[in-house]
Each structure stands twice: as structure tokens, then as C-alpha cells.
Write a structure and sequence with these properties.
Helices cover about 70% and strands about 0% of the residues. With about 650 residues, the chain is mainly α. The longest helix has about 40 residues. The termini are far apart.
Length: about 650
């Protein structure tokens, strides 16, 4: 009995295994068949249409597969239109949705009438897809059916709003009147979207209807109407918008105040002055800005009076508007604000900058005093303002500000001194040479001398290259780079052996800028330095000098272990334009680093030789899209070559749009 039972179990397991294998084999075959159909469709073969239609009808298929089939049908275009239209009659809403989506992606006049018919489909998602597809079709036949959707009060609000945008997309001019008709409708969301679109369309037919909505009971409708009328910018709207400055709703009033900035109409001045006392700070803020832009001097005194009665954000706009108005009556009040310790430091700093805009001598002493204010924001903005004014009396105070405890103040003081011109050179040299000053201050003075560009500073800065303080040596090297005086060459070469790496870097940058051939050998030597960053900077400097003696060392650098140097070397060889670099650059197209391949392709393109075609054709198939993009761009020079032309045409099918564009 046991033996029979065992035999039965074995037979059962064998049969079960056979059926499982058969089912698995059948599924594998089905998957293979489906993939074949999809591939056939993607190749544009009409034989795929019928099987693909069957896929989107097949409820046993997952949603992704059915959607994929629909997208392939859309790609087949005109070949699939009639079968898709026939499938619209199926009772399954999922199938109909897929069909409408596919039809919407086909640009053919035959899709319009079927899509119009489904605007009354029971499924709102299908109707939504149809609205979008009809808008994209650009066919004027869709206009009236879409207007019907918009005006259908029984239709869902979301779809009616979609019809608003669809009508505008379809025909901007013909959309205006249908949109105007819904301004008096009961659906607030549809009405507000129509208002928004009318503002964007810029059609004057909408002005009077929009003015009528300014008294609508819904505050969002009034608010949107204000915005729309501001966009239209028609003077007929000025008085009605001024009336909204006293609207019961804060948002409407603030939008009305903002709208006044678009018109520049003097009728708004007095109402805006009244709005400075509004209970809402946003209304006050927009009123302040509008008064500044209206350029009417009646606003000066009210703005000054309002300053101490408003919030910080409004105060900042008052300062800005007073500068815009440019009325010198504002100078003394602004000086008082600068000195007032109870006013926020940011506002006082902003005021310092504002005072500089007046260019009046009365502001200089208060700004100099502000350099000693306890708040660093005020001090830094005062330094910047004094630089803009360029008053000689501020020279010494700004020199002193180089020793401020805050870096931002010191930096702004140095920048300000660089704006003084020749008169600042001697005082700055004194600071650089004064070893009793701290190194940061002396370094800032050296930096300012570089910005000034006066070669009188060359010799003192050369001496500073041997200063005991590293920061002074570093800033002196960078300053000599800006001066570009060849007298500094020998000293900068010596600096390459400085103990501090940062100073090496500054010296290399300076040598590259000098443009003197005597800098070539030291830079070539730096190209093999152990310091990675120094090697990179040397490559950039050699490219800047443009001397052919650098070609061979740079070719050698293409084999450096540092990919950053290999990139820079490839770039430099392109700039040097020496034919000896062609083969090494060609080899660099196989570099493991995409950036190296990228710069090699660019360099080969810069060389502009017919021999570049083969290497660039190789680069056109690179796995990195940036390399392919540059190769395509470079090959454009050789458009008369048939092989190049064919390869570029093939690249129009590249998956990356930037490659196709190049």
C-alpha cells in the first residue's frame, strides 16, 4: 500500500511539474510575442496595429503594458488612426481612455471629429483627455464644442477650467468673448480662471467686463480682476482701481496698490498717500513702492512721516522710494535714520547705501561716523557707500576700517579704497609696508593695490613677496598678477619655491597673466610638481601664455594620474593649436574619465584640421552625452564631408536632445 502511495505521489509531482513548465513556457512565449509586437510598432510597421489594439483591449494585461501599447500606436500615427477610432465604441472606459490618449498624440485632422464626440463621454477622465487633445490639435473645428463645455453649467468645474485654457491654446482671439461670458457665471473657480486668462491675453475687449467684476461679492474675483486690469494697463481702469484701494479686503487693497505701479498716473498719488496709513502692512508696502515709481514729489513728506509708524519691510521700501524720487529734502531725514540706534541695523545699512545715491556732500561725515557704529552691517554698508562717493576725506577712515574686527567690513573697505584711484596708492602702500599692522590688514591693502592697477605699486609688492607673513606674500602675488608688470617676473619665479603652497598657486596664476616667455620654463617645471593643484594651475597658465614650447610637456600631462590635470592639458592643447597634439588627443578620446574625453573632443574641434574627422566621429559614439555633444558641434566645421554629414544625420536620433541640437 505504501509503495502504491509513493508511486502516486511521484506521478502527481511529475504531472504538476510538467504543467507548471508548460504554463511558464506559454507565458515566456507570450512575453516574447508581445515584445516582438512592440518592437515592430516602434519600427513603424503597420502589421503591429491590430495586435497592439488587442493588447489595450486585453484586461489580463497590466496597466503599464496596455499604456505602452497605446503609446506605440500613437507613434505609428496615421497608420493607427482608423483602428483607434473604431475602438472608441467599446464599452470599457479604460480602453476608451487609452484610445483617446493615443489619438491625442497624433497630429492628424481625422482625430478631431471623434474627439469632439467623446466630449460627452460618461467618464470625466476621457472628457478631460479629449479637451487637452483638441486644444493641442490646433483645429478650429474644436472651438465651438469647447465653448459648449465651458458654458455647460452641469459639467464638472475642473473640466470647465480646463476648457478655459484649451480655448486660449486653440485661438487666443476667438477665446476672448467666450471667456467674457463666464465672468457673470456662478462658478467662482471658472470665473477666476477666465479673469486670469483675460489679463494674460491682453485684449482690450476685456477691459469693461473686467472693470464690472471689481464690485463682485467674491473677494478673490475682485482681487484677480485687479491683477488682470494691471496687466492690460489701460488708463480706463485707473479710477476703478483707485476705488479698490479702500476695498474691505486686504488682498484686494494690496493688489490695487501694486497695480498702481503699472500705470504711472498722477491721479493715484493722493489715494496712495492715504494707503500709507492702511492697517495692513502689505498694502502699505505696495503703496510705498508705487509712490516711488510715480515720481511725484508730493509723496516725499508723507513717506518720511510714515517711516516710524510702519513695520520693517515697509521701512525698507520707504528708503528705496525716497532714493527713486531723488528729492534732496529726504537727505536729512535719511541721515537721522542712519544715526538712530533704535532703527533696525539692516534698514540703517540700506540707508547708508541710499545716501550715497544722492551724491551730496552732507552725507559724507555721517557715513564716516557710521564706520565706527557698533553694528557691523551698518559699518560695512557705510564703507561701500563711501567707496561710491570717492570723497578724499574718507580715505583715512577707510584705511582704518581695514583693521575692523569683522571680515565683511574689512573687505568692503578694501573694495572701496580700490575705487579711489591714484590718491589711494600711497596710503595703501604705507599699510602694506607697516609691519606693526596685522597680516590680514596688510594683505587687504595689497589686494586693493592690485585692483587699482597702478604700476607704482609693483616694486613695493615685489618686496612684499618676501614678507615674513604668508598672507601678505599671497596677496602680493595675486596683486602682481592684476598689475601685469614684467618687472615682477623674476621675483614670482623665486616665489615658486616658497614654503607655503597657497603662495605657489598665486605665483603660477601671476606668471600666466604676465605673458612673458621667460615664465615658460618655470611653469613647465611646475607641471611635474608633486602638488596636484599646482600642476593644474601650471597647465592653465601655460595655455594662457600660448607658447608652443608647452606642447610636449602638456602632451605628457595627458598621462598624469590626476584626471583634473588631464582635462586641463587637453583643453590647453586645443588652445595652443599645434598639430603634434592630434594623435595624443585622439588617444585621450579613450580615457576612462568622461571629462578628459570631453575636453579632448573640444580640443580636436579647435584644431580644425581634416585629420580631426576620424577622431571626432569616434567621439560621436561616446557613452557620455557631453562628449557626443561637443563632437557633433566640432564636426559642423566639416559639413562638406559626406561621411561627416551622414554621421551628423544619424546623431539627429540621439537620445539626448542637446546632442541632436548640436
Amino acid at each position: 500500500m505504501q509503495i502504491k502511495t509513493h508511486i502516486a505521489i511521484v506521478i502527481f509531482i511529475t504531472i504538476l511539474g510538467y504543467f507548471s513548465f508548460a504554463i511558464a513556457q506559454e507565458k515566456t512565449n507570450q512575453t516574447t510575442d508581445l515584445n516582438s509586437v512592440l518592437k515592430l510598432g516602434e519600427m513603424g510597421d503597420k502589421r503591429a496595429v491590430k495586435p497592439l489594439i488587442a493588447v489595450i483591449k486585453d484586461k489580463s494585461k497590466n496597466s503599464y503594458t496596455r499604456k505602452h501599447a497605446a503609446s506605440v500606436l500613437a507613434k505609428l500615427g496615421s497608420l493607427a488612426i482608423e483602428p483607434l477610432i473604431d475602438t472608441l465604441n467599446i464599452n470599457d472606459p479604460i480602453v476608451r481612455r487609452l484610445v483617446v490618449e493615443a489619438l491625442g498624440n497624433i497630429r492628424d485632422k481625422r482625430i478631431v471629429d471623434p474627439l469632439i464626440r467623446v466630449l460627452v463621454d460618461q467618464d470625466v477622465r476621457i472628457r478631460r483627455l479629449a479637451v487637452d487633445a483638441l486644444a493641442a490639435s490646433g483645429d478650429i473645428r474644436a472651438l465651438e464644442p469647447l465653448v459648449n463645455v465651458l458654458h455647460n453649467k452641469e459639467e464638472k468645474s475642473s473640466l470647465r477650467r480646463r476648457a478655459v485654457t484649451a480655448l486660449v491654446q486653440l485661438d487666443r482671439k476667438q477665446a476672448v468673448n467666450p471667456l467674457i461670458t463666464v465672468l457673470t457665471g456662478g462658478d467662482i473657480q471658472v470665473r477666476n480662471m477666465a479673469i486670469e486668462m483675460l489679463g494674460k491675453l491682453g485684449d482690450e475687449r476685456a477691459i469693461t467686463p473686467l472693470i464690472s467684476t471689481l464690485t463682485n461679492q467674491n473677494h478673490l474675483t475682485r482681487s484677480n480682476a485687479v491683477k488682470a486690469l494691471a496687466q492690460l494697463g489701460d488708463e480706463r481702469a485707473v479710477e476703478p482701481l483707485i476705488d479698490r484701494l479702500t476695498d474691505e479686503n486686504d488682498l484686494v487693497r494690496s493688489n490695487a496698490a501694486e497695480a498702481m505701479t503699472q500705470f504711472g498716473d498722477a491721479r493715484a498719488v493722493e489715494p496712495l498717500i492715504a494707503s500709507l496709513k492702511d492697517k495692513n502692512s502689505l498694502v502699505q508696502s505696495y503703496a510705498t513702492l508705487a509712490l516711488g515709481r510715480l515720481d511725484d514729489h508730493r509723496a516725499v513728506e508723507p513717506l518720511i512721516s510714515a517711516f516710524h509708524h510702519v513695520e520693517k519691510n515697509v521701512q525698507s521700501n520707504i528708503v528705496r522710494s525716497l532714493v527713486q524720487l531723488g528729492d534732496k529734502r529726504a537727505i536729512e531725514p535719511l541721515i537721522a535714520i542712519l544715526k538712530n540706534e533704535s532703527v533696525d541695523a539692516y534698514i540703517r545699512g540700506l540707508t547708508a547705501g541710499a545716501l550715497a545715491q544722492f551724491g551730496d556732500s552732507r552725507v559724507i561725515e555721517p557715513l564716516i561716523s557710521a564706520l565706527k557704529n557698533h553694528n557691523h552691517l551698518v559699518r560695512s554698508d557705510a564703507a561701500k557707500a563711501l567707496g561710491q562717493l570717492g570723497a578724499q576725506v574718507a580715505l583715512k577712515p577707510l584705511i582704518s576700517a581695514l583693521e575692523d574686527t569683522e571680515g565683511i567690513v574689512r573687505s568692503n573697505a578694501a573694495t572701496a579704497l580700490a575705487q579711489f584711484g591714484q590718491s589711494a596708492v600711497d596710503p595703501l602702500l604705507t599699510v602694506v609696508q607697516n609691519k606693526n599692522k596685522d597680516s590680514f590688514t596688510r594683505g587687504l591693502a595689497a589686494s586693493a593695490l592690485g585692483e587699482l592697477g597702478d604700476k607704482k605699486a609693483t616694486e613695493p609688492l615685489i618686496i612684499a613677496l618676501t614678507d615674513e607673513e604668508p598672507n601678505v606674500r599671497y596677496e602680493a602675488a595675486l596683486a602682481l598678477r592684476l598689475l601685469g608688470d614684467e618687472r615682477a617676473l623674476a621675483a614670482l619665479v623665486t616665489t615658486l619655491s616658497d614654503d607655503e603652497k597657497q603662495i605657489h598657486y598665486a605665483a603660477v596664476l601671476a606668471l600666466g597673466r604676465l605673458g612673458d616667455e621667460r615664465a615658460i620654463e618655470p611653469l613647465i617645471e611646475a607641471l611635474s610638481d608633486q602638488d596636484e593643484r599646482l600642476r593644474r594651475l601650471a597647465a592653465g597658465a601655460l595655455a594662457e601664455l600660448g607658447d608652443k614650447r608647452a606642447v610636449k610637456p602638456l602632451i605628457g600631462a595627458l598621462s598624469d594620474q590626476d584626471e583634473g590635470l588631464r582635462r586641463l592639458a587637453a583643453s590647453a592643447l586645443g588652445q595652443l593649436s599645434d598639430k603634434k597634439a592630434i594623435d595624443p588627443l585622439f588617444a585621450a578620446l579613450s580615457d576612462e574619465d568622461a571629462g578628459v574625453r570631453l575636453y579632448a573632443a573640444l580640443a580636436l574641434g579647435q584644431l580644425g584640421d581634416k585629420r580631426m574627422v576620424e577622431p571626432l566621429l569616434v567621439a560621436l559614439t561616446d557613452k557620455d552625452e557631453r562628449v557626443r555633444r561637443l563632437a557633433a558641434f566640432a564636426l559642423g566645421r566639416f559639413g562638406d564631408d559626406n561621411q561627416v554629414l551622414e554621421s551628423l544625420i544619424s546623431s539627429l536620433r540621439d537620445k539626448d536632445w542637446r546632442v541632436r541640437w548640436s
